[in-house]
Amino acid sequence: MKPPQSIARHVTLPCIFLALTLAIFTRAHPATATESLSARVLAVRDGDTIVVSASGEKKVVRLIGIDCPELGKNGEPDEFMAMEAKELVADLVSEKDVDLAFDMEREDRYGRWLCYVFTKNGEMVNELLLKKGLALTLTYFPFREKKKFLRLQGEAEMGRKGLFRDLSPHVVDYSSAHFEGTEVYPGPARTYIVVYGGMAKALLKESELAGEIQRIRRYAKQYPPSLVKTALETDGYTPFREKATQERGDANPTIGYREAGDHVGRYVTLEGEIKRVKNTGKVTFLNFDQDWKNSVSIVIFAGDALKFPLPPEKLFPGKTVQVTGKIKVYKGRPEIIIRDPRNIRIIEKE
């Protein structure tokens, strides 16, 4: 799909009218001279970002519709296959002339041009990165080539190319090796355990591993070490050693819900019938007692409620449940925050 060259200035008015009409009804690229242009590549920043000179102007160009692995900044390691993606683009276009074609939006919020980038041989660089498995398709905003890009990504995955080489365990191994303190262990029934800073989360599916490591990296960037632990706790992580002793029966003691206030800061298991449920729109509260102001609350935030098979306010009323988590205090009242549905289970009455 090589963009049109500077032929627009030679066409007649009837041709222009016909082209515009076709563009409206076929959703083709608008036939204006500003929608495509030639440029000279000055630098390649990474797999999906280049710097060009076009019409006497220096611009940063973001390859539209794809996302390549990030190169490390401020001493951080490169993401898996980041350098391979950059080197491919550099080989194709560095210090060479290219053609740029725009889509629905010309610029992103950072002022970068959003373009399909073509070599002078007519190859689209965006597509080549996808074909070699060195990019993923961006799906959260519209662009015309999305269906094609998703197909190319699927073909790369089937062929186990680039990012899909050996599938996700290879990506996890790379991230773990370059991000100190993160470990991945095999768990039961083809699941995995992620450990970081003495905190562990078990029974993770293979498809969830890369996301968990990215979560840890994000927390480590945003928070001091003491708050990283707190953030992980709210996402279902428990102290690694405590989790190890749980099997021996000397951790996570089962207590009565009225005793929750005496165990603040500890991991416990509560068991009882849910007698009160309230959904505020942002939070769902589950209580073992109608007197909710003087008893422990089970707290499920709206985003986490989506992880349950049914809305919690429909799933748990009148059910006997077993809840495991850390007791915290909010506005003077004890509570357990449930981020993972596996930390609350319904006990069937015999």
Give me the secondary-structure topology.
Blueprint: H1 13-26, E1 36-46, E2 49-54, E3 57-63, E4 66-67, H2 82-93, E5 97-107, E6 113-118, H3 125-131, E7 136-137, H4 146-158, H5 168-178, E8 182-186, E9 192-196, E10 199-204, H6 206-222, H7 225-234, E11 238-239, H8 240-246, E12 254-255, E13 267-273, E14 276-279, E15 283-287, E16 297-301, H9 302-305, H10 312-315, E17 320-330, E18 333-337, E19 344-346
Parallel strand pairs: 3-6, 12-13, 16-18
Antiparallel strand pairs: 1-2, 1-5, 2-3, 4-7, 5-6, 8-9, 9-10, 10-11, 13-17, 14-15, 15-16, 17-18, 17-19
Helix pairs in contact: 5-6, 6-7
Radius of gyration: 27 Å
| pLDDT < 50 stretches | 2-34, 242-250
Strand content: 25-35%
N-to-C series of helices and strands: HEEEEHEEHEHHEEEHHEHEEEEEHHEEE
Count of separate DSSP helical elements: 10
Distance between the termini: 66 Å
Structural class of the secondary elements?
alpha+beta
Quick one: how many beta strands?
19
What does the largest sheet look like?
A: 8 strands, mixed
Mean pLDDT: 80
Note down, in words, how this protein is organized.
The protein has 350 residues and is α+β, with helices and mostly antiparallel strands. The chain is 28% helix and 30% strand. The chain is built from 10 helices and 19 strands. The protein has helices spanning 13-26, 82-93, 125-131, 146-158, 168-178, 206-222, 225-234, 240-246, 302-305, 312-315, and strands at 36-46, 49-54, 57-63, 66-67, 97-107, 113-118, 136-137, 182-186, 192-196, 199-204, 238-239, 254-255, 267-273, 276-279, 283-287, 297-301, 320-330, 333-337, 344-346. Strands 12, 13, 14, 15, 16, 17, 18 and 19 form an 8-stranded mixed beta sheet that branches. It has a 5-stranded mixed β-barrel with strand order 1-2-3-6-5. Strand 2 (49-54) and strand 3 form a beta hairpin. Helix 6 (206-222) packs antiparallel against helix 7 (225-234). The longest helix has 17 residues, at 206-222. The radius of gyration is 27 Å and the shape is elongated. 26% of the residues are buried. The model is unreliable at 2-34 and 242-250 (pLDDT under 50).
